[in-house]
Recover the amino acids of this structure.
């Protein structure tokens, strides 16, 4: 479980770093789409728990061997899906 949390934190950090150039370049990020995906209680806000739950679900989708880890190819697909969902 500890490794899963580390992997998710690393993946989230990587996705954030990859998204930063797009934000500063003036590209539009579809915040509404990301919010709809995460906001499970429909209060109009995304909590850390809601965001992490969505990221964990996406991670698990790409962890086809159910090892709690992604290899490079799986990580690439995971990050592409994560970036696609946020903009």
């Amino acid at each position: 479980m500890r490794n899963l949390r580390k992997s998710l934190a690393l993946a989230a950090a990587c996705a954030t770093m990859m998204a930063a150039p797009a934000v500063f370049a003036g590209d539009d990020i579809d915040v509404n789409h990301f919010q709809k995906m995460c906001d499970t209680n429909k209060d109009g806000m995304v909590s850390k728990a809601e965001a992490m739950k969505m990221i964990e679900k996406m991670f698990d989708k790409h962890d086809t061997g159910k090892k709690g880890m992604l290899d490079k190819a799986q990580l690439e697909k995971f990050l592409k899906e994560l970036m696609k969902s946020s903009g």
Q: What stands out?
A: The first helix runs from residue 2 to 24. Confidence is low (pLDDT under 50) at residues 20-26.
